[in-house]
Design a protein that fits this description.
Chain lengths: 242, 242
């Protein structure tokens, strides 16, 4: 048995959603048929069920790189090889509103966990098949999503230099969050497929304002639908390729 | 007038192909209608012509980041906002053969030029729409491609760090070349769209073997056909957006 995710390996599906938030893990599992809580040790809430007969797992990673790395490594040991992070984020861009969705094509490696695997020069980018499945799922469902860069950081409450933030804003960085760098780097290193989608809960000038909560929650529900639709299409393509 | 590319800005199109090689610039220009050589200064061979009525420019960047950076900055000053690098590359992977075409989804930043623009943790990734257009174009043309990560470095003949090479191969890098890191990072900072594809001229064991030359030239022709087809579809989408 794994050190931190305590369940039988047979209870983990190949296809896994990895939100940071416990509540979101449960919300994703609510879309499954016959979802079952298969582990809740170390704060990893792990649910497995099916969507149109395809087995899928939803697991909360908690916040930050170290927990993401342990989470997906152990899921990988148990047979998972395809991950979609269904996250929340803030934004650097004035044009992005609370509730807007962002699908990252690459993220700035502000976190340090990925550095233990591959040097910072290695691009933290999603798997192409997962990225395109997410974009296509959003179009199929008629839900608008921004497609562009993100910035993953280790320190929610730290104060980065305003000049540095301005530079990333100029370079088109849309989303700010805390886990995608680690997910993409560990996945590249291990040969897993990974992608991500975020629902924005702020504005370029406000962190999680209370007035944005309702729009964010709508975005969260939409990103879950997109992620599930994308995962279905990946699983169907895998089955067809066999 | 620009410092190095010496021509009237009116002679430069919005859409530009940026191969490293002069010969390849000529080869791409041969696919344009009414192609005209508009500048030859500093070794940048610049041609402008049309494809089905859409104006396109080709500019050889020479080899390496410094020369590529100057070329795309000056092309940008003259109105280019969409770049496709049509390059050659070697490979890290045994499954890639001479003549195979690789579409980049991100690149390891082994080059130094881009560090003057954005820190090394910034992801060197291409624009999604452009990359997607190339993958779709390859499909329409019936040309098989690999889609994935690469590395770009400054020093073709420097001693190889075999341990790093092994690590990067394990992490799935497909292509090795010298310019796309600079292209992707500068394009991000300037708000331009950039993509890249490469024809492979070697194998994971052999650098530019003579036995692979015929296959490479076929791959080069395939790569530039994909690039032109993709650029056309981007230009048509731009026109429909207006």
């Amino acid at each position: 048995m794994e050190f931190h995710i305590r369940c039988d390996a047979s209870e983990i599906a190949r296809y896994v959603f990895v939100p940071g938030d416990h509540d979101r893990a449960k919300k994703i599992a609510d879309h499954f048929d016959n979802a079952r809580l298969v582990s809740d040790s170390r704060g990893y809430m792990v649910y497995t069920g099916t969507v149109d007969g395809i087995r899928m797992t939803s697991m909360s990673t908690g916040m930050g790189g170290p927990q993401v790395a342990i989470g997906i490594e152990e899921l990988g040991h148990m047979g998972a090889d395809t991950f979609i992070r269904v996250g929340s984020c803030g934004t650097l861009q004035d044009s992005i509103q609370p509730g807007d969705l962002i699908i990252p094509t690459g993220v700035y490696r502000g976190g340090a966990t990925g550095d233990r695997y591959l040097p910072p020069a290695f691009p933290a980018a999603p798997n192409w098949a997962v990225l395109t499945a997410l974009v296509q799922a959003s179009r199929k469902l008629g839900i608008k999503a921004h497609v562009g860069l993100g910035w993953s950081s280790d320190a929610f409450y730290a104060l980065p230099e305003p000049q540095f933030i301005a530079k990333l804003k100029q370079a088109g960085v849309l989303a700010v969050e805390m886990e995608a760098d680690t997910l993409f780097i560990v996945s590249s290193f291990r040969g897993f497929r990974a992608g991500a989608i975020f629902a924005n809960d702020g504005t370029a000038t406000e962190v999680k304002p209370a007035w944005a909560e309702e729009a964010f929650r709508r975005g969260e529900e939409q990103e879950i639908r997109i992620a599930i639709e994308a995962m279905k299409s990946i699983a169907l393509a895998d089955a067809a390729a066999r | 007038m620009e410092f190095h590319i010496r021509c009237d800005p009116k002679e430069i199109a919005r859409y530009a192909f940026v191969p490293g090689s002069h010969d390849r610039a000529r080869q791409i220009a041969a696919h344009l209608e009414n192609a005209r050589l508009v500048s030859t200064s500093r070794g940048y061979l610049v041609y402008t012509g049309t494809v089905e009525g859409i104006r396109m420019t080709v500019c050889s960047t020479g080899m390496g980041g410094p020369s590529a950076a100057i070329a795309i900055e000056e092309l940008g000053h003259m109105g280019v906002d969409t770049f496709i690098r049509v390059g050659s590359c070697g490979t890290y992977q045994d499954y890639v053969d001479c003549g195979d075409v690789i579409i980049s989804t991100g690149v390891f930043r082994a080059g130094g030029t881009a560090n003057n623009y954005l820190p090394v943790a910034f992801p060197a990734v291409p624009n999604f729409d452009l990359t997607h257009a190339m993958v779709e174009a390859a499909g329409r043309l019936g040309i098989k491609v690999h889609v994935g990560l690469g590395s770009a470095g400054d020093a073709f003949y420097a001693p190889r760090d075999e341990a790093q090479r092994k690590l990067l191969a394990q992490a799935g890098l497909v292509a090795g070349e010298m310019e796309s890191d600079t292209l992707f990072v500068i394009a991000a900072l300037r708000g331009w769209r950039a993509g890249a594809l490469f024809a492979c001229d070697g194998t994971s064991k052999a650098t530019k073997p003579e036995s692979g030359e015929a296959a490479f030239h076929q791959g080069e022709e395939n790569a530039l056909r994909i690039a032109i087809e993709a650029m056309k579809s981007i230009a048509l989408a731009d026109a429909a957006d207006r």
